[in-house]
Automatic annotation (TrEMBL):
Residues 141-374 form the Sigma-54 factor interaction domain. Pfam families: AAA_lid_14 (PF25601), FHA (PF00498), Sigma54_activat (PF00158). GO terms for biological process: regulation of DNA-templated transcription. This is FHA domain-containing protein.
């Protein structure tokens, strides 16, 4: 058994069941609690979250109006396939079937004693069939391929639950747009959606960014500051590039997920937080666990629902729809009066786009459409406005960025020679050409901006995250620059 299979899949309470690689059923573990069963005014609750808090304070999930109950009396926690009750140092204690406990596993039908209040516990396993959605759009996501419509089907079901979600997929496949849509379709939609890129912040600052710090807790901490978890209260936090989170910070994130509280750097005081976590990674976290770079318990805790976004090359039928979506929705295709500059794309240009390999996925498609809009002479993008590395036309391939033409070649001394490329198979030549162009372009821009990634990516007019990814891909070390 691989280390990350400590909780085998069948035992996971909330999970997606696959048949022949296709998602078929969503199992949703819910907790059903009846407060004071057997009396007229019994109250019933059903929860789909991992932690349920009980006590007299109003912000508990089950607020209890009972003098014998403490303010934060106890909590019920999902522990893998099991459910655990944990007393929080209450004055009058927590009981399971009449026996006082500090921590105990619950069985279906267990009766909990919390002060004078009795609560009956019952887990419910709801099974919902997953069928591809009939819609070609969900929130901000568009797609007509079966794979994307299956993902829509899953999102529709899991978005309203509190379930933690992990989204896996190559760079630029739409992980953030999926996370944002899950948030929009949840009860948290009016609360903040906060994005944190674990790979973009220096390791020594991540803890204070996420959890906050007390004044004087480290050099430079001139005042007390809330972390993102506190600021995202009631909303969703999207942890991008989670695979980059260092091993020493992983237990701290686990604590937030298990106990729903944070401790600021320099303080021992726990601060309760109510935030849904959605994480994304373009590495396989299961492989990271096997390699010892990612904690198995955190992986398990996070992967309540795992979504795998397919690369664009595996869903080329989405390309025409995505292209039309970008032409109609994105700001780059509007003139100063707000009208669309380009109305359409030619059949031939669409054919070229569907034949291309898409290493940069949907983000690369966005960039190519944007470029097409700025070059288009009329109201239609034709093959002439597509970059040469996409059309396979080498002369066009020299004009890789708007305004940069063959005559600029002197800047590109490191690019492979045309004669060398001509001796290679087409696919390899194309890859070599793009790789050396990207490396040269990124390094040159970084040098011009003295290593400042934000201003270099602004000049390149590409996303900072994508810029950083290209640096990583080509091993460009900022210190050497
Ligand atoms: N299915 C989709 N429908 C509409 N827009 C999409 C879709 N997929 C991606 N996009 C757009 O493509 C761009 C890249 O998507 P996004 O940033 O969500 O990718 P990502 O997987 O999070 O990237 P990274 O791995 O770099 O963090 C964004 O402009 C996004 O709006």
């Amino acid at each position: 058994m691989a280390p990350h299979e400590r909780f085998p899949d069948e035992a996971q309470p909330t999970k997606i069941a696959y048949v022949n690689g296709e998602p078929r059923t969503l199992h949703l573990r819910k907790t059903h609690l009846v407060v004071n069963p057997g009396v007229d005014e019994a109250r019933e609750y059903t929860f789909d979250q991992d932690v349920i808090t009980l006590g007299t304070l109003e912000d508990n999930d089950i607020p209890l109006d009972d003098d014998t109950v403490s303010r934060e009396h106890c909590r019920i926690v999902q522990d893998g396939p099991h459910t655990l009750i944990i007393d929080q140092g209450s004055t009058n204690g927590t009981y399971v079937n009449g026996v006082q406990v500090r921590e105990a596993y619950l069985a279906p039908g267990s009766v909990l004693g919390v002060g004078n209040t009795q609560i009956r516990f019952n887990p419910v396993d709801e099974q919902v069939p997953i069928t591809p959605s009939t819609s070609e759009r969900l929130g901000d996501i568009v797609g007509k391929s079966v794979k994307m419509r299956e993902i829509f089907g899953i999102i529709e079901k899991i978005a309203p639950t509190g379930a933690t979600v992990i989204i896996e997929g190559e760079t630029g496949t739409g992980k953030e747009v999926v996370a944002r849509t899950i948030h929009q379709l949840s009860a948290r939609k009016d609360q903040p959606f906060t994005v944190f890129d674990c790979g973009a912040v220096p390791a020594n600052l991540i803890e204070s960014e996420l959890f906050g710090h007390e004044k004087g807790s480290f050099t430079g901490a001139v005042m007390t500051r809330k972390g993102l978890f506190e600021m995202a209260e009631g909303g969703t936090i999207f942890l991008d590039e989670l695979g980059e989170l260092s091993l020493d910070l992983q237990p701290k994130l686990l604590r937030v997920l298990e106990q729903r509280e944070v401790r600021r750097v320099g303080s021992n005081k726990p601060i309760p937080v109510n935030v849904r976590v959605i994480a994304a990674t373009n590495r396989s976290l299961a492989e990271e666990v096997d390699a010892g770079r990612f904690r198995e318990d955190l992986f398990y805790r996070l992967s309540v629902v795992r979504l795998n976004l397919p690369p664009l090359r595996e869903r080329i039928e989405d390309i025409p729809l995505l292209t039309r979506h970008f032409l109609s929705q994105l700001g780059f295709n509007r003139d100063h009066e707000g009208n669309h500059k380009v109305k359409t794309i030619s059949r031939e240009a669409l054919d070229v786009l569907t034949d291309y390999d898409w290493p940069g996925n949907v983000r690369e498609l966005v960039n190519i459409i944007e470029r097409g809009c700025s070059f288009a002479r009329g109201d239609c993008i034709t093959c002439e406005e597509l970059p040469g590395y996409v059309t396979g036309d080498e002369d066009g391939g020299l004009m890789l960025t708007p305004g940069r033409r063959d005559s600029d070649r002197s800047d590109m001394a490191d690019l492979p020679r045309r004669s060398e490329l001509n001796d290679m198979p087409f696919k390899r030549a194309k890859e070599e050409w793009i790789a050396s162009f990207e490396k040269d372009y990124i390094a040159t821009l970084l040098a011009r901006h003295s290593g400042n990634i934000s201003s270099a990516s602004r000049e390149a007019d590409i996303d900072r995250k994508y810029f950083r990814k290209l640096m990583y891909k080509h091993d460009i070390d900022i210190d050497e620059i």
